[in-house]
Amino acid sequence: MRSIHSSRLLIFGLLFVFVQAAVSLGYGQYILPLYLMDILAPAISLGVVIQVIRAHTGPQKGFWLLIGTALFCEMTAQLIWGSYEWIWQTEAPDIGIADIFWVSQSLIYLVAFYGWVRSGEKNRYLLDSMILVVSLAVVSWEFLIKPIYQGDENLDLITISVDLIYPITSLLMVFILTCWLLNGERRMSRGTMRMLAIGCLSYMSGDTLYMLLIDIHSLDSLEPWIDTFWTGAAFCMAVAGLRSLSGKPGTAGAEGRVGRVIRFSVPYIGLLLLIGILVFYRLTTDVFVWGLTLTVLLVLVRQIHFLTEREMLNDKLRQSLRRLERIASCDSLTGLLNRRVFELELEGKLSGPGQEPVAVLYFDLDKFKPINDNHGHRTGDLLLQAVAERLSSLQKDGISMARLGGDEFAIAVPLSSLGSLERLQELSEAVVQLLSKPYRLEEVTLRTSPSVGIALYPQDARTMPDLLDAADQAMYEAKRRGGRGFAFYRGG
C-alpha cells in the first residue's frame, strides 16, 4: 500500500513540477500562483514526512525528523519571501530573514546525512568532506567568482558567497550519498536511496543555476523556472520517506578489487582536480613544483592501495569470525543451534522487558535407537539432518530451534509471535505432522515421529532450567500416551 502511495505522490510531484515550469516559462516573472506553488511543494512534502516520522520506530525516525525540519525551514523561507511581494508590497532583499531559514535548511539536511553515517566512520567522512569543500572553494573562487567579480564591481560578493553555500552543501549531500552506496550502505532500501540522490541533485542543480544565472548574470526572468528544481527536490524527499516504509533494507553484494579502488578514490576527487589545474593551467618548468605534484600523486596512490589491501584483509577477518561464530553457536551435524546457545537465547527471552510469555517445545524421535542400531550411525545422522531440515521450514523471527543432543530437539517461541495458545497448539501439531512423514534416506525409507512436551513461562516455571525440565517431563507424558503427539506440562 505504501509503495502505491509513493508512486502516486511521485506522479503528482512530476505533474506539479511540469505545471509550475509551464507557468513560469509562459509568464517569465513571478505571479501569485507561482508563489503559492513554491510554498505548497515543501508544505505537502512536510505533511508526508510527518506521517513517515510517526510510522518509523527504529533508527530512521531521527533521520526523517531532521528531513522534516529542513522541509519546514524551506516552507518558512518561501512564506517569508512571498510575503515581501504580496503582503508588504516591497522587493525582497538579496540577503534577509528568508536566507536564515534557507541556510538552516541546507545545514540540517547535511546534519541528517552526516548523522546517518556509521559511528566509526564519522571522522573519516568529515575529513573527506573538508577536502572536497576546500578544493571546490578554491576552484570556484579562481575560475568563477574572481574573474566575474573583477570585471563587474557592481556584483555583491557577500550575496554570491552566501548563495555559494547552497550548492556546496547540496554537493556534500550527493558526496555522502555516493560514499554510502560505495561503502555498501544498506540500512535503507534502494528505492529510498535513489529518491534521496535525485532530490539532492535537484537541489544542487537549482542552487548552482541560481548563483550563475541570477546572482552573476542577472537573468531574473529565469528565476521562477529555477524554482522548479527545488520543488522537485522537496517531492523527492517525501517520496523517499514513503519508500523507506515499504522497502526492505538491501544486502551488500560482493565487491571486487576495482570496486574498492573506485570507492577509496572518490574522496580525493577534489585533490585530483587541484593537481590537474596546477598541471594544465599553471604550466611551469620548475622542477620543485613537478616533483611536489608527482610526490602527492604517489602518496595518493599508496594511500588508496593501502586502504584497498586493508579492506580485503578485513573482509577475510570478518568471514573467519562469522565462520568461528557459526561453529561456536551451531550444532555441527544439523546446523541448528547447539544447547549452550539455545539456553542463552532462552534466558534472554525470559529476562526480556515485561516478562513476555514464552513456550518451549521439547521433543525426541520415537524409535530412534532401533533405527540407529539396525541401520547404522550414518543413517541415524542422515535422519537427524533431515529432521533439522524439515524443522527449518517452520523457522520465523523470534523462534529459536536447537538440537540439544542425541535425538533431542527444542523450540523456544514467544507467545506474542503466535498470538494465542490455539496457535501454539497448531504449531505443535505442525511439528508432529511434519516430522512423522516418511524419510527417504539413500536406499532405505524410514518412519519415525516426535513426542513433544510443552511448557510455558511463567505459568509452569520461572527460570530457564526449570522450564526445560518441565518441558522434558511433558515430553515423557506424550510418550506414555503412545508417542506421535504432544502434551502440555500439568505440574507435579
From TrEMBL:
Positions of the GGDEF domain: 356-491
Chain ranges passing through the membrane: 31-50, 62-84, 96-116, 125-144, 164-183, 195-213, 225-242, 262-281, 287-308
The keyword Transmembrane is assigned to this record: yes
Keywords: Membrane, Transmembrane, Transmembrane helix
One Pfam family of this chain: GGDEF
Record SMART domains: GGDEF
Cross-referenced SUPFAM superfamilies: Nucleotide cyclase
NCBIfam families to which the protein is assigned, alphabetical: GGDEF
The protein's name in its UniProt record: Diguanylate cyclase
